[in-house]
Structure formats: C-alpha cells, structure tokens
Amino acid sequence: QAGLKTKKIGQRIEYLEQCASTQIVAHQLAQEGAPDGTAVISELQTEGRGRLMRKWDSAKGQGIWMSIILRPELPPHKSPQFTLVAAVAIVRAIQSVTGLDASIKWPNDILFGTKKATGILTELQSDADGIQALIIGIGVNVNQEREDFDAEVQDIATSLRLESGQPVNRRKLVQEILHCLEIYTDMYIEEGFAPLKELWEGHSATIGKAVRARMSRETLEGIAEGITEDGVLQLRTADGKVHGIYSADIELK
Ligand code: BTN
C-alpha cells in the first residue's frame, strides 16, 4: 500500500498468492461487510472468469487480477455505468504509467488495435433490500510474452509489455488504477455520467465505426453512433433506424 494516493479505494487490500477467482473472494468479503473500496488482488487465479461465462486466462505473476468492492449510494439503474467509468479509469492509468494509448471497445474491453489487453467484469451483489455492493473485476495483461497466452487467445490477446517493448511495474500500475478509479467514480457520483460519457467516447474504438453486434436473438450491423446517458450503445442500421444495444458482443468491421 506504500505510495497509494487514494482515500477510499484500496485502503483495504486482500492480497492472495492464489485463489479460484478474485470475484468469488470479493463476493464473500462483501457479504461479510467489507467496506467500500476494498480490493482483492491475486497473483494467480485457477478459475478466472470473463463476461458471458467465458474463462479468463490469468497466468501467475504476469497480470493484474483484481476485484474491487464498491458501495455507492446510487439507485440501481445507475450501476451499469460503473463498468464504463472503470474502463476510462484503466485507460488513463495505463497511459500515465506506460505512455501507451489504449482504446475502449464497447462496453469495456481495452484494446491495442484489435487485440485485447484488459477485461472488466461488473457483478452486483443484491438481497431483498436492494443492491448491497458492486464487484468490479479487472484483469490486465501486463507482462505476458506471446507464448504465455493460451493457444486459443494468442491471436486476439496482447499485453502491455508486448505493446511497449518493456516490462511494466505491476505495483505502480495497480496504485495508479486504484487512484484513477477513485477520481472517476467520485466524478460520476458527484457530477453524473455526462463528463464521463465524453471521456469514454474520446477513448472509444467503437464510436463512428462500422460494427457487427451479436446478441442472443439477433445480429445487427451498422454504424455505432454513440452511447446514451445510460451507457446504451446506439447503432444505426442501413435502413436509418437507430437501435439501443444493452448487451452484445461487438465486432469491429
Ligand atoms: C472479460 O473481458 O470478459 C472480463 C474479464 C475479467 C477478468 C477479471 S480478472 C480479476 C477478476 N476475477 C475474475 O475471475 N475475473 C475478473
């Protein structure tokens, strides 16, 4: 924690050598009443998980595998935007530590070109009284070489080391991510989504591009025009109609 510039996020850090998934540990801690801003970090995850029930490759000591517990006092419909806020925070943190400019693919993949360097998974913990906590899972590929990735993701994954040509200090990057998360989540809570929407769009790899959106029932193709105040992607199809996309896999064409 030495060198940490935050007041809340990361003031309590659970540091583990190994666990199944930091998401599982964070859910457990949140249930036991862990305070707002608690972070769980693990060197190795044996069952790292991604969005849409996918597996997340989380090799030992080479990335940042971390989950943050947040307890914002906001109505439930304002929670999904935290994923977008986290993406902005991580892109900014990567920029300040490595000088690299990453971009965000809606909703929250962080890319270099078409290759993914970071994934974010936001889960809610709720009970009969409402949402008790948000668990924001962040996986950053930091020091992997190409052969460190599982064969099936080698062509679609990258790391900060591969992009910058040199190893990156993980401790510094964790501290900067926590710092940026605090800045931007506070901004969202105090000023609403408008300033964040602008920042998000500024880093976006999706807006203005032709994309294919695969949803559970249908696939739509069109131009991604922007996001709404609720973080919904606006897709204009060839017939001129604008569709609101809440959840999809986006492919840049
Ligand atoms: C995605 O892009 O699908 C999201 C990946 C999220 C991975 C992180 S690593 C830390 C945390 N623990 C997990 O099991 N998953 C998230």
From TrEMBL:
Reactions accelerated catalytically: biotin + L-lysyl-[protein] + ATP = N(6)-biotinyl-L-lysyl-[protein] + AMP + diphosphate + H(+)
GO cellular component terms, A-Z: cytoplasm
The keyword Transcription regulation is annotated on this UniProt entry: yes
This protein's UniProt keywords: ATP-binding, Biotin, DNA-binding, Ligase, Nucleotide-binding, Repressor, Transcription, Transcription regulation
Domain BPL/LPL catalytic: 1-189
Binding residue positions for biotin: 45, 49-51, 116
A GO molecular function held by the record: biotin--[biotin carboxyl-carrier protein] ligase activity
Enzyme Commission numbers on file: 6.3.4.15
GO BP field: protein lipoylation; regulation of DNA-templated transcription
Record's function text: Acts both as a biotin--[acetyl-CoA-carboxylase] ligase and a repressor.
Recorded family membership: Belongs to the biotin--protein ligase family.
Protein's UniProt name: Bifunctional ligase/repressor BirA
Source organism: Planococcus plakortidis
Parent-protein start and end of this portion: 74 to 326 of 326
